[in-house]
Amino acid sequence: MIKEPKSKIPEYKLAPDGSFIIQNYNLAKPFANFFPGIAGRYGIPMWVFYVNRGQCIASFGVKDKDHPLLEFFPANRAWQNTPTQGFRTFIKIRTKKKDIFYEPFYNGYFNKNLFHRNAMTITPSDLTLKEICSSLGLETEINYFPIPNDCYAALARIVKIKNISRRKIRIQLLDGLPWIIPRGIRHRFLKDIGRTAEAWARVVNVANCAAFYKLEVDPTDRPDVIFIEKGNFYVSFSRPIIDPAAIFGPRLNFDYPYLFLRDKNYKYPKIQTAESKMPSAMSLAEIELKPGEEKYLNSLFGTIRSAELLKLRLTEIKSAKYLQAKRKQNQEIILRLQSDITTQSSSSEFDFYCRQTYLDNIIRGGYPIIFNSGAEKKQIFYLYMRKHGDLERDYNRFQIEPTYFSQGNGNFRDIAQNRRNDIWFNPDIESASLNTFLNLIQTDGFNPLIVKGLQYHLKDKAQFRKTCFGLINSQDIDKLLSFLEQPFTPGGAIFFIEENGLSLKVSKDKFLDALMADSLKEEDAQHKQEDDHGNGGFWTDHWTYCLDLLETYLELHPEKLQEILFREKDFKFYDNVYVVRPRKEKYAVYENKILQLDSIAFNEEKAKMQSLRPNQIHWTRTTGGNGAIYQTTLIAKLVCILVNKLASLDPFGCGIEMEANKPNWYDALNGLPALFGSSICETMELKRLIYFLQESLSRTDEQKILIFTELHDFITSLSQLLTSSSDAFSYWDKSYCLKEEYRKKTLLGIDGSEKELDRQAILDFLQQALKKVNAGIKMAFEASDNLFCAYFINRLAEYEIKDGVVYPRKFQQVKLPLFLEAQVHALKILKEESAAHKLYVAVKKSQLYDKQLKMYKVTGDLRAMPFEIGRCRAFSPGWLENESIWLHMEYKYLLEILTAGLYEEFYSEFKNILVCFQDPKRYGRSILENSSFIASSVFIDKNLVGTGFVARLSGSTAEFLHIWRIINIGHKPFFLNKRGELNLRFAPVLAGWLFRKDCTYSFNFLGSIKVIY
């Protein structure tokens, strides 16, 4: 058995400045991580993924997987490939007797007799590697960071070589990438036809210190030839070597530089092949170092719009002064974002964790800025948001827009959750997020999956032409207006001005303020993933995050309850071309079983109607879809959601049905919709909505609301059914019929006429609804263990088939094992602290509690369940969504313990659950960064128990920010007194041990006001 010397054992440390250091990282548990993908307002962001192997950078590029400089691999392949296919540094130390070969940061054959130790230092903005080889007297340090606020995207790499011996050292060095992807080779080409794709590869403009890599034309098999102007580039400290064969010779796996070692005095190659092969991006240096002397080798790897622009900027961007300035800018951008949540407690781990969690919340949800447009309604724009995707989330088609004011697409649930707390850090955004997500709710209560970035169009082209004379040179106005005829983004407009050499008379910021003042925003969405070849589906839980946003808004603005609910008539309905099929079309015989399949249909008639609209095509319109965009009040939208969900209870009146191909938050039950599955979690949320509406009506004097006629008819019929239907199955069947009739009426649009619903009618309906959902929730309660069942299979036990249509007659309910999720939602609706405490005790006694880790598992034991429930059943217990510590749901649970007033219980769990208090050796990565899940104690590989996987971009960030807010200022610090006046009262819930030695604790209130207790 080989025993590592003590100096080679991995060690983890949080430095005083908040950086996280891993000593001997090559031997530590493997993990995957990434840079924020933030380049400032006027910068082009890159995606950069790294692992703790070799020189760490595993892959990077711009926009998406189709635009790499270093090929995207999933984490398991990245751990294998990065040491050889990532960045490399080859060093030959020249001595009188022989040359000694050494490769820093590489655990290979040539280093086996050398004593060396290394470390990686992780900060929110960059990554630094350091290796000391005492055998050779060399110290090597590498710093990586993205270039911010410039017209190109690049990863900077600063290598420092230092002589730590007492003698002069002469070395010959090769540094860079063994291979780099030319611009134009897409992800699929690399994976499927990588050899063929090489035929298009070209390296052009190999200058003294730069090379430009691209394809001449798009390699897609198409009749129209598309020329490629943009390119990937390498800027270095010496003339680039672009042919890997000139370094590695026959060693095609890049294990060692065969020719560099073979030739005692290796020279820059006279002949290099610059086409029809994947090129390299390496440079050669001869260095002589006196004792204590150090040498810096700077390089840039990026994407730029043309070879000409690269030539123009080359002298500037390769200078050390430029790179140091950009390094500082990069740090300042991230620190400025994090400053909103500055916290000073007795725990540096907690303080830095707050900052990192806030940053990670921004990365998924975005960061709001406000244009000074002078408009009555503020122009809110979210920077930096994107769909999460990385080495461990290899399944996602992430996208980071490669332009100024970068934004991206994201999933409805993800962004809605991560924006929940934004108003408490940026109060000026007011109800912007609330409007965005409520508008995306359709008339059927569902919503599209993908939230797109904002676009704009001019209100009045003639008016803006007049404005332009004060903004831009007159000869450039027509060219600019031509560009602005199509929908545009702020960053795209500035990029167009720069690319076309237009001259502004004012600053970029002032130009955008003026442009936004004369523009209207276009919010849009997309029904499904681009790579979903079916018709997608609708999740049952998405609407609940709108209620979260509303409650958060009213906690800051209790005085605006009446205004936001009843006065502002500017809420819309998303108009989706994908619709839910009626039962007769989706109940089908499959392998001798009746299943619910293919629940979503594409409606061609609606799609054709939308294609004729000039803009704003995806909003429900009056006159059956041919009229104006219909706008209503928030209270009307909430009633619409309520009615739709109340008509979606399962045949037992218990859970909300998964009728539209998708489950709820717990995506891993992907098979449950086919089994007529349902969830009590959304029934509990329905009860929360009822409570909210009842309380809101009690606090206002509104006597009536206006709702569109089709909804009025729906609610009237459903109200009659609630009082007349005697059994659950009858209610299910009849309410489903009402819902299908309503969907048919509103398929293309609505009539546009409205009817009044008076206050008492609403209150009566809410009481009927409450009685109905209470009965269902009671059915889900298991008295034997005082816990709630979350999910149900509703088997079709008796049915008839007539003319190919399945008619249900009787269902049989099957309860799934315990899920933490149901207990979380139950805590939201338990009004008494004693009931919440009883539930808390029951959870801790159940199999949901991991006694070894002192944490909470997302599920109980699923082994008795059929594989048909979904992918969770196929996973090993303790891994991914099967009985692991799913951090988001565990943090939700911790939040609800706090919200329920169980403060002692909350702090008894605080240090066991929060990532920043984990043992980093067990957690296996920075304790400042969340993971999606932690392998629980039931996992088969005991070496991985307690280790975190799937880094950072988790909804747990939103839950932690909510927790942070409550412990600092209390549940509802703003309130109205008896005279209706707005008051502020802090009621912190801080443990004594969080106070510093000087008995103080401080935090930023509303993002900028320092509060000291």
List keywords for this structure.
1013 residues, globular, alpha+beta, 4 domains, four-stranded antiparallel sheet
Question: Would you mind describing this structure in some detail?
Answer:
- By secondary structure, the chain is of the alpha+beta class.
- The chain contains 30 helices and 47 strands.
- The strands form 15 sheets. Strands 1-2-9-10-11-12-18-16-15-14 form a 10-stranded antiparallel β-sheet, covered by helices on one side. A 4-stranded antiparallel β-sheet has the order 3-4-5-6. Strands 8-7-13-17 form a 4-stranded antiparallel β-sheet.
- A hairpin with a 2-residue loop joins strand 37 and strand 38.
- The protein is globular, with a radius of gyration of 30 Å.
- The chain starts with 10 loop residues before the first strand and ends with a strand.
- The mean pLDDT is 95.
Question: What would you report as the Rg, rounded to the nearest angstrom?
Answer: 30 Å
Shape category: globular
Query: What is the CATH C level class of the largest domain, in words?
Result: Mainly Beta
Describe the sheet with the most strands: 10 strands, antiparallel
Overall pLDDT, averaged?
Answer: 95
* Helical segment count: 30
By CATH, the superfamily of the largest domain comes out as: Glycoside hydrolase, family 65, N-terminal domain
**Strand order across the largest sheet:** 1-2-9-10-11-12-18-16-15-14
N/C terminus separation: 56 Å
What number of domains? Answer: 4
CATH topology of the largest domain: Beta-galactosidase, Chain A, domain 5
Coarse structural class: alpha+beta
User: Which blocks of ≥5 consecutive residues have pLDDT under 50?
Assistant: none
Helix content: 25-40%
What is the count of β-strands? 47
